[in-house]
Amino acid sequence: MVCNAPPPFDSDAGARVTAMQRHDALPGARHPVAGGDAMFQLDNQLARDRYRRLSPGYDSATRRIEPVRRQAIDALCLEPGQRVLDVACGTGKSLAMLRNAVGADGAVVGVEQSSEMLRLARRRVADAGWDNVQLVESSVESAPLAGPFDAVLFVYTQDVLQSEAALARIFAAVRPGARVASTGLKLFPWYLGIANIWLLTVSYSYFTTFRGLRRPWLPLASYVELHGVRPTYFGSGYVVSGVRRRPAT
């Protein structure tokens, strides 16, 4: 399969990503919808509590994101025999596509901290009879990840992307040159403030921190050479992909 980098959302995205990180870190860069520092704090226990309630209807409620899930997986350019990490794998909706891509000789590892969500993922694996799909119940920050991985997938993982500890844990187990892809929610441009209020109202249950929602992918730039960002859903979502940088020595 020929795998090309996606066309850039911003032609200077790669060069400007560090500058954008600095800008988003400024106090004045916080979006106007969130109120209070608590809304910028990660809370794994809150996330587990929320997904305990969300798990029974999760697959139905998130069916609209299937097209961008496919786009992100396609951007990984997976090959038979590779090892891929599915970060915050939830109910396992990406597992079939990932396993089909790496084949019986590859391996898929999914990490999920919600036992209720992972129970549904385990049912998928058992029903399909996959013996090369491993599911790990753990927060990403403390997950035992046996690398090296050839690819990493993030599908609507806002909290993980904003956790420095989680990203450090992930990329310690990812080989240089590995493909990385992420898709998720992002804020509309600032001038569509009313639309952002609606967006956060319907989606806030799925994450615990509002940090970085203008450009949620930016923390990846510490580890990944980003090829570009494609907007989805009229600007309320994104798909980004890139390649794992060689760690500095």
Structure write-up:
With 249 residues, the chain is of the alpha/beta class. It has a single domain (13-244), classed as Rossmann fold (3-Layer(aba) Sandwich), CATH 3.40.50. 33% of the residues lie in helices and 21% in strands. A 7-stranded mixed sheet has the order 3-2-1-4-5-7-6. Strand 6 and strand 7 form a beta hairpin. It is globular and about 50 Å long. The chain starts with 12 loop residues before the first helix and ends in a 5-residue tail after the last strand. Mean pLDDT is 87; it is low at 5-36.
How would you concisely characterize the structure shown here?
The chain has nine helices and seven strands; from the N terminus they run ααααβαβαββααβαββ.
Assign the CATH superfamily. Answer: Vaccinia Virus protein VP39
Strand content: 15-25%
- What's the architecture in CATH terms? 3-Layer(aba) Sandwich
For the residues shown, what is the average pLDDT? 87
Question: What is the CATH C-level name?
Answer: Alpha Beta
The helix fraction, in percent, is: 25-40%
Oligomer: single chain
How would you spell out the order of helices and strands?
A: HHHHEHEHEEHHEHEE
**Number of helical stretches of at least 4 residues:** 9
Strand arrangement within the widest β-sheet reads 3-2-1-4-5-7-6
SS class: alpha/beta
What is the CA–CA distance across the termini?
A: 33 Å
The CATH topology comes to Rossmann fold
